[in-house]
Amino acid sequence: MTHTLSVALAVLLIAGYGLGLLFSLKTHQEIFATSEHAEAAEPAWPLGLALGTLAVVTVLVALVSEIFVESVQEAAEKFGMSQAFVGFIVVALVGAAAEMAVAFSAARKDRLDLSVGIALGSASQIALFVAPVLVLLSYVLGPTPMDLQFWPGAVVMVLVATLVAAFITSAGRSAWFVGALLILVYGVFATTLYLLPPQVQ
Length: 201
What we know:
Layout: H1 2-27, H2 29-32, H3 47-79, H4 83-95, H5 97-108, H6 112-138, H7 152-170, H8 176-195
Helix pairs in contact: 1-6, 3-4, 5-6, 7-8
């Protein structure tokens, strides 16, 4: 029953992600456009070049990710890190390094809208697209089907992170102290996962 529910939810989440893309890129793109920085926008790449570059970069990222995961597994065993800590903290930080660099750069240029958009867009892409696609692909490529049943601690952390993100972004402005508090929340998650990892059943 859990696997059937996971497949149904995966399909619905992917549909929601697709509708979100349609909303932001096609039907209501004026909501997401920033007029004050429109003049500084660079010309778009030709479609063929953009798709080709995306394909090459995707393959390279997949190869580097495979090497990185193998290296991290050895380091995790040496330092006594749980798989949850490695997945939630180490892999997440290193995997999002490029996005964080762009978000930091945007924030330094006083483009808070772009910086927040990058951060939240990445998180929603993982939740609404990557995880559901992995569930569906596990039936074709994986040794065992994957489901969307997570341990309660992960659900609580995702809920807290979502509420904090909604609270922070609703104000429309920020300060260094808010950023420091966000890092402290991340530190609480990291410490909890390191010292109290989920029990493997």
